[in-house]
TrEMBL record:
An annotated Gene Ontology molecular function: FMN binding
Name this polypeptide is given: FMN reductase
GO cellular component, as recorded: cytosol
PANTHER family linked to this entry: CHROMATE REDUCTASE, NAD(P)H-DEPENDENT FMN REDUCTASE LOT6
Pfam families cross-referenced by the UniProt entry: FMN_red (PF03358)
Residue span(s) of domain NADPH-dependent FMN reductase-like: 7-147
Domain of life: Bacteria
Alphabetized InterPro entries for the sequence: Flavoprotein-like_sf (IPR029039), FMN_Rdtase-like_dom (IPR005025), NAD(P)H-dep_reductase (IPR050712)
Length: 190
């Protein structure tokens, strides 16, 4: 049996702005996962500034290697993207493209891993369409989207530095996403 402390959930997302609304949302979900007893790691937006993914270029810089190894070691993931113009950010999409480097692994891509997803956008349309795109990408990478995903309208909900938000429902949703990812990872580790 694997101990809970050796089960890892990786959080990826946010924007280039430290402390962005999407990064704060991601931190809430990761905190809930950690409370379930798993180890969490965060790779926020500023650490996702990577060269454009190119399968023809085998060399990876330090940040790309950290991301790839983080995903490789993760038992579950939580991905939160800002919604820009109806879709996920190029920053998050490029990071997800790097998962292609895991194609030859024993556990290829996101195979067998629960992936919690949320989108934070200024308006419902972008929040919903961004979440749907994240789900489509997760399925293409053989990941299991958690039953609950989060579409958060930042015109109505503001996240604070203390790990809360102006809308308690958004906090509950993000916490449940984190709990679902951790729960699935713990079950698979048995």
């Amino acid at each position: 049996m694997t101990s809970a402390k050796s089960v890892k959930v990786l959080g990826i997302g946010g924007s280039l702005r430290e402390g962005s609304q999407s990064e704060r949302a991601l931190r809430i979900a990761l905190a809930a996962a950690e409370e379930r007893g798993v180890v969490t790691e965060l790779i926020p937006g500023p650490e996702l500034v990577l060269p454009f993914y190119d399968t023809a270029v085998p060399e990876r810089d330090e940040r790309a290697r950290k991301l790839i190894e983080g995903v490789r070691q993760a038992d579950g993931l939580i991905v939160v993207s800002p919604g820009y113009h109806g879709g996920l950010s190029g920053l998050v999409k490029n990071a997800l493209d790097y998962i292609e480097d895991l194609r030859e692994d024993t556990r290829p891509y996101l195979d067998g891993r629960a992936v919690g997803l949320a989108a934070v956008a200024y308006g419902w349309q972008a929040a919903v369409t961004t979440l749907e795109q994240l789900r489509t990408i997760t399925h293409a990478l053989r990941g299991w989207s958690t039953p609950l995903g989060g579409s958060i309208n930042s015109a109505e909900t503001k996240f604070d530095e203390g790990g809360g938000a102006s809308d308690e429902k958004s906090v509950r949703t993000l916490r449940l996403i984190g709990e679902q990812v951790a729960g699935h990872a713990l079950l698979r580790a048995r």
